[in-house]
Amino acid sequence: MTKLDSKVPEGPIADKWTNHKNNIKLVNPANKRSIDVIIVGTGLAGGSAAATLAELGYNVKAFCYQDSPRRAHSIAAQGGINAAKNYQGDGDSTYRLFYDTVKGGDYRSREANVYRLAEVSANIIDQCVAQGVPFARDYGGLLDNRSFGGVQVSRTFYAKGQTGQQLLLGCYSAMSRQIGKGKIQMYNRHEMMEVVIVDGKARGIIARNLITGELERHSAHAVVIASGGYGNVFFLSTNAMGSNVSAGWKIHKKGAYFANPCYTQIHPTCIPQHGDQQSKLTLMSESLRNDGRIWVPKKKEDAEAIRAGKMKPTEIVEEDRDYYLERRYPSFGNLVPRDVASRAAKERSDAGFGVGTNETGEAVYLDFTSAFMRYGQEEANVHGLNDASQEKIRELGEQVVEDKYGNLFQMYEKITADNPYKTPMKIYPAVHYTMGGVWVDYNLMTTIDGCYCIGEANFSDHGANRLGASALMQGLADGYFVLPYTIGDYLADDIRTGSIPTDTDEFAEAEKSVKDQIDFFINNKGEHSVDHFHKQLGKVMWNKVGMARDTKGLQDAIKEIKEIRAAFWKDVKVPGAADSMNLELEKAGRVADFLELGELFARDALLREESCGGHFREEHKSEEGEAARDDKNFKHVSAWEYKGEPADAVFHKEELEYKNIELKTRSYK
Amino acid sequence: MNLTLKVWRQKNSQEKGQLETYQVKNISTDSSFLEMMDILNEQLVNEGKEPVAFDHDCREGICGMCSLFINGEAHGPGEEITTCQLHMREFKDGETIHIEPWRAKAFPVIKDLVVDRGAFDRIMSAGGFISVNTSGNTQDANAIPVPKEDADMAMDAATCIGCGACVATCKNASAMLFVSAKVSQFALLPQGKVEAAERAQNMVSQMDEEGFGNCTNTGACEVECPKGISIENIARMNREYLSSSFK
Question: Where are the beta strands (DSSP E) in A189-254?
Fold first, then answer.
């Protein structure tokens, strides 16, 4: 078994990044002009990296499958971005953000990476404000903060419920500036189909022009994958419809190890599934848990009556409500981390207390009544309304809540046709984020030389569970402040290489393999659509590799996914032609990769005989039903090397060392 | 519910398109409009026909990719929603629904319901930014207080999702609402104020080059905007633009 080298610099944790930056090689400005970098994906990570690398002087070629970089799915992040600014003076610090993130990740992330993330977090806010990101402000004109799950300070910066949008548009503006200068060549509606390796180094990609169907060869001195997460392996998720694993999977098949595929985040506050015709789930920001209280009926007969449509939640009196998170976790209450909140919702629903009136029956309430009354009273006091009626107070409170979460309430009403100001919201967990991903070292380089992976696509910072408002932080940290410097250390050796030719055997071979697969899909003329197989895969993943996993289920899943994959390759039907826009063809390629990833995912979950963060094994829980970690045997990153079939993938281990944080059982009680 | 769909089909940008008629059955009223389109496409694929190409991605009203002209309205019936936020409960059983792409000279059809909105990207590259490097060596985020009112107005302008409904709705196919939202966002913030006039100048001249029409203040754009962007932004941009011409 090879030892993975994480290349974490020596020295005290607080000095590592500074020392590292002082010691890595630089590329002088004149030489940067002769170096090309390819970036696949233009979300927060890819977009910020593209902008910064171009500003530094590199020639950047950026690719996205959408019609504009502004549409990457980072845009859908709602709640906010964490930063250890301590503007609230509530005791926050770099160390505390670092500590919270490692603990929140259930002690399965790399200490040095997380510390660096916390360290650069404050800079992100400075940077974004300078770019014109309109963060929320208080009446004094200073930046406002809110609180998120799993922490006890207010360090989350936000722009209404559209923080991801505003940060991405900031990035897109920075990119646009460089596109205008010609420093970034932007390839919209292009999909990366293959990575090209020359002499062991990543030197280019084969991309498909999604409008003309043409295959294009693009070369560079380094390739950066920033293509996001793989939650769509579950078919139903909160990811964008086009989100896929393919870029990450293609490099995996060419030598990049894939780490911890089983670490998935199931987000607790999503709108419950309405039925079988659904294509997509919708998330509502975790920030709602700042003010909403989660409950189910205390009595089973009440839950049954609600499910049957014979009773309304507002008819259930206070004493008959079970605020189960406040009951089980008094010190964090409704703000426990996502994995804990999701499992608790599943536990109540499985026990027969769910309140879903939809076809699935699964849902719990998120109720704002207390917040309406609390804020309303405050407002009444501020305006000297001493004898305000209960109705008036509630009305004032609704106004405050509307200012904070108006767009989320509106979104909920549009989808469900229920007015959340009058009746509690119904929520249920859904697949949202993947902590696993391509293995990278401290420099964010994969196990292929010159191939980097940043943002959600890599595995690095969140361990087994990501805290709210940390995805945006990581994406921008990687793209603005980490990769642009670490990549120079590698590219410094390439200043005399000259541009990489594309008329070589390596490019020809890569292009041929892509063309062969496309031809196969077009000519196969099978019985079933791509979605038919994707839905089957999703069902297996959700039922057996979802929120709770056990040995038998996982073994079955591995077998079933293999069967679905075989059926897919035999029987998939892709209408249309290869040489024009063909959305079914695009989906076919992506689902083919999901069908391989899904099996590796289940294998990884089977091998990890412990419960940690988002990975919950039924066999490994405490008497109270909490996740039981096994640090003795599983305090490591599982990194998989591709060898053909997922069943043949070779397991590698990166031991995790905790020198600055004491390993403890995670408790939010 | 059962529906008759009249859908615009066009092979590519060169060929002519036409409306085709399709039937869909047993659609749940809780389904979204695009889920209904998914069902139509699944049906077409099963019949061995090419599915209808349409743009969509996040399906939660924020990426701005979806862009259908439904029964003569950008993003269909309902206020302040994108196509993906439209639900079938807005329609009646047995209804006939017309589905067309955005129509504007500056947004050529690529295929079926998919149009090319690259013109928006080019307007952004011409000036839709604050000229600051992403080095991180900027001053502290709280160094310049921004009045809450200005920050809130900037935020309102910044919520534009760049979908192009304003252009598709406008009888002149003008892009003024889109451009003015970006100009306003930056002009309202001290960080962006410095180059506000120049920015307006550059973005507007690119807009003209792309073949968008003139604004004649009909206000139709504001009504159809899924994010409720106000035409006050157009007035603000005109001020910036005028001040740049006097320089």
Answer: 190-198, 201-209, 215-219, 222-225
